[in-house]
Amino acid sequence: MASQKGHVVEFTPPHHSDLQPIELVWAIVKGEVGRQYTTTTTFPAVLTRLKRAFNNLSESAIRGCMNAAEEKVHQLHTIYMPLKAMLKLATHQTTTVKVLQRTTN
Questions:
Q1: Which Gene3D superfamilies does the annotation name (predicted)?
Q2: Would you state the pLDDT for residue 68?
């Protein structure tokens, strides 16, 4: 549906919540709400605290979550590109060996 409206849909690998800024935001909110928990806390109180925690999120906290995710993507890219080049080279070398084997047989 999003791509039909002209949006680019990007998928991230499963189990990598550190690549999802919203997961980092949730961690902040859950920490805020969790620190207020007592044995007498009710579900309505949790809902009120959740709303308050989201409303109190600062722009800098949200930017920090986005920057942290971007930095992680950059780190992974730095690792991935040399691996991709090595795989391409290894594939080329394997293909060359197979061609040479066919021509010598």
A1: Ribonuclease H-like superfamily/Ribonuclease H
A2: 95
